[in-house]
Write a structure and sequence with these properties.
By secondary structure, this protein is an all-alpha fold. Helix content is 61%, strand content 0%.
Length: 77
């Protein structure tokens, strides 16, 4: 299947650089990147399905309700 997409010039340039260094097509670079991204989403979905909200809340309840230490504060806190 052929699909046309628009990508920013800088992203295309990076893909072209990778393609040249690996002796593959730019289309293969984008197809591989897309396949890896889809696989990552699938892994994340499987992990989410294993999650247990009740267990999460049980563990969260054990965390002390205190202000963060000085080193853990955000710059605008």
């Amino acid at each position: 299947m052929n699909v046309n997409i628009e990508v920013p010039n800088d992203l295309y340039d990076k893909a072209l650089e990778i393609a040249r260094s690996q002796s593959i097509s730019v289309a293969d670079v984008f197809a591989t990147a897309c396949a890896e991204h889809v696989a990552a989403w699938e892994r994340l979905e499987r992990r989410a399905q294993r999650g247990d909200r009740a267990r999460f809340l049980e563990v969260l309840a054990k965390v002390p309700d205190t202000d963060p230490g000085e080193r853990d504060r955000l710059p605008n806190d």
